[in-house]
Amino acid sequence: MALIVQKYGGTSVGSVERIQAVAQRVHKTAKAGNSLVVVVSAMGKTTDGLVKLANGVSQNPNRREMDMLLSTGEQVTIALLSMALQEIGQPAISMTGAQVGIVTEAEHTRARILHIETDRLTRHLNLGKVVVVAGFQGIASTEELEITTLGRGGSDTSAVALAAALQANFCEIYTDVPGILTTDPRLVPEAQLMDEITSDEMLELASLGAKVLHPRAVEIARNYGVSLVVRSSWTDDPGTWVTSPQPQGRSLVNLEIARPVDGVEFDTNQAKVALLRVPDKPGVAARLFGEIARQKVDVDLIIQSIHEGNSNDIAFTVNTPILNRAEAVAAAIAPALRNQSQADEAEVMVEKNIAKVSIAGAGMIGRPGVAAQMFATLAAAGVNIQMISTSEVKVSCVVAASECDRAVVVLRTAFEIEDHEAGEVISIAPPPHTIPPVRGVALDMNQARLAIRQVADRPGMAAQLFGLLAKHNISIDMIIQSQRCRMVDGVPRRDIAFTVARIDGESTKNMLSQAAAEFGWGEVVLDSAIAKVSIVGAGMVGQPGVAAKMFEALAQHQINIQMIATSEIKISCVVAQEQGVEALQAIHSAFGLAGSEKFIVPA
Ligand code: ASP
Ligand code: MG
């Protein structure tokens, strides 16, 4: 006998027949002796319809009234499902978010959950009833008892938060796809269903998986150790399990507004190898990292950004003990990478005394200020940032080894991380062989790239830039500050590049161009025709050759890599937009993720 939370999405409850089918499944699970809380979405496209109605009445609908309107969708479903259950002899009761006591912040249309009262739920469960709860909605803890909603797609979040609060045995998310696939099946019909994925991988794949499972729900599952499975409501197939580390007994108070950063990590055992002025053409990264992989050298960070002219700098970090081998490989290959059109040839630069300092946490998704706060904190402590690489849930900075201790101390304080929660990554144990190096491949075609030339290389510059973006509420996806440093007017300067949502591209450029004059930065360059393709897998840790394989797949298709950024479990490349889909297909098949069976998307 278990306590189970089940969640059914809009399509799964889209008609009377579908609601009856859901009732049968719920009844079967309850009859087997389990206690059940069932969370439902609004029927079919109801919420979209309500949004449309509101837009018909007002160009800028009041957010409080929007919540009042949108929360009605789920209320229809809970009543109908309870009736359908009672009809087949299953005791059931429906409850709104307010009736349960799903208490949220007073932020209309995007409230985060503060805590969930479990008394009323438990009372009904103990009487043998299935409790059917309206997803997506809550009640603000203010005197007015305002109805709030959690943001579009928020029913997943309701379900996982309920599972955490009730300490349910597991949470099942029922949807109209069989689970989580290795990539987008509309672009790659050979995409395969995964049996399981870790919550960290799932978060890094947010741009791929967000439609199937809301990232906020994954974050809660990860923080509270909720066992989570995504399954089809049409079949009895097992679906995809999202696995999380053992829960650390985190408090259920302020459930969703816990700290955005839950760890500060550092690694002083790193050295940096940079190849300067390699040609900007397809195949260069593939050759370099192919050779490195053949020599069994495991690289950690890889950073390549864009530069004037037709050359790039590629920098990577390795563990200090293998630096000599890495340097030898880079030096041997440098002459072959000579840039024909330029007099100067690729040069190898090595730096032994560096450290990597990272902040990690799912809470930084969609919060523009987190990276900026990291940079500002380092700046205030006088720590210069040599390179930056980001992923969905991590920001890593390369700094001088001598400044590492100071950096860690100030970051722990700034992000309220206890001493025992931050740790040196001495050496990350390679995962068991069963974990594939690459779990999934994602393509993001909705980004634009911005670069700011010649930003002075001194503490505080990244802080200034990203602080400004945060102030304007512009969400940044990927940040890359690469190796190249040039003297201009006697001041060493670097370029900083980052990506934003494409719709924000123009306005961000205009805003920054004004700021550039004021702060003495160089030109601001915008490219809206880019695509970002990423591989994610916990199994790539400690496995040489994964990056090489990705770059090789792109080279074979003559696809030029414009920028590279990595985290421990993710490698992202920026390529030209028109080559995005081809890049995705090439990489997906290079890692053997395309099985023989085609996956058909249900209509
Ligand atoms: N009905 C809401 C929406 O469409 C919430 C959900 O389905 O998750 O956004
Ligand atoms: Mg959904």
Which descriptors apply to this entry?
alpha/beta; 603 residues; disordered C terminus; 2 domains; VC0802-like; globular; Carbamate kinase; binds magnesium ion; binds aspartic acid; eleven-stranded mixed sheet; eight-stranded mixed sheet
Question: Can you walk through the features of this model?
Answer:
The chain is built from 17 helices and 27 strands. It is of the alpha/beta class and 603 residues long. Helix 10 packs across helix 11 (323-333) and helix 16 (546-556) crosses helix 17. The structure holds aspartic acid and magnesium ion.
Q: Could you say how many structural domains there are in total?
A: 2
At the fourth CATH level, what is the homologous superfamily of the largest domain? VC0802-like
The Rg value, from CA coordinates, equals: 25 Å
Largest sheet: 11 strands, mixed
Proportion of strand residues: 25-35%
Q: Structural class, from helix and strand content?
A: alpha/beta
Helix content bin: 25-40%
CATH architecture annotation name of the largest domain: 2-Layer Sandwich
Distance between the termini: 35 Å
CATH uppermost class of the largest domain:
Alpha Beta
CATH topology of the largest domain, anyone?
VC0802-like
Shape: globular
Bound molecules: aspartic acid, magnesium ion
The number of distinct β-strands equals 27
Low-confidence stretches: 426-430, 596-603
Mean pLDDT, as a whole number? 89
Number of helices: 17
